[in-house]
Amino acid sequence: MRLLAILLLSTAAITASAWVPAKKATFVYVDKSARELFLFNGTQLIAKYKVALGRSPVGHKQREGDKRTPEGAYVLDYKNPNSQYHRSIHISYPSRRDQALARRKGVPPGGAIMIHGQPNGFGRGAPILQQSDWTDGCIALTDEQMDAVWDMVDVPVRILIAP
């Protein structure tokens, strides 16, 4: 009887926790000047993280190699669990507008802009690395933060990157 009661309580606890839906992001907002990423479910803020940006963070990405993080409205369109960083989620840069701007300037627009964790194998250096802008234009989080974002974002999801 005692074993039955323990099993029933354990099953009830597992079932009850399974009924609580995880909050999923329906919109992502990045404030480059504040170095913050916000996840929203509708109008409800569900998470906020400090981020690192491209090494030349001021201004919109103009071309490949400029080390800038793009600005504007994009879509998080696919996830890469086997990235050279701890997980990554692709940002749909370059848009048609970005491509046209680069074409007018006669330069390649660049691409492979992601939200990602730390470089694979980096270890405990993440807190130090995250104190400055270090990417080639991506938005970087710690690995733990990236795991949380990974779980809350089901692609596709809109993202707005503000100056």
From TrEMBL:
Keyword terms, alphabetized: Cell shape, Cell wall biogenesis/degradation, Peptidoglycan synthesis, Signal, Transferase
Signal peptide residue numbers: 1-18
GO molecular function, one term: carboxypeptidase activity
Pfam families: YkuD
Active site: H116 (proton donor/acceptor), C138 (nucleophile)
Domain (L,D-TPase catalytic) ranges: 26-162
Pathway named in the protein's UniProt entry: Cell wall biogenesis; peptidoglycan biosynthesis
A Gene Ontology BP annotation from the UniProt entry: peptidoglycan biosynthetic process
PROSITE patterns noted in UniProt: LD_TPASE (PS52029)
Gene3D superfamilies: L,D-transpeptidase catalytic domain-like
Family: Belongs to the YkuD family.
Protein name from the UniProt record: L,D-transpeptidase family protein
Organism whose genome encodes this protein: Agrilutibacter solisilvae
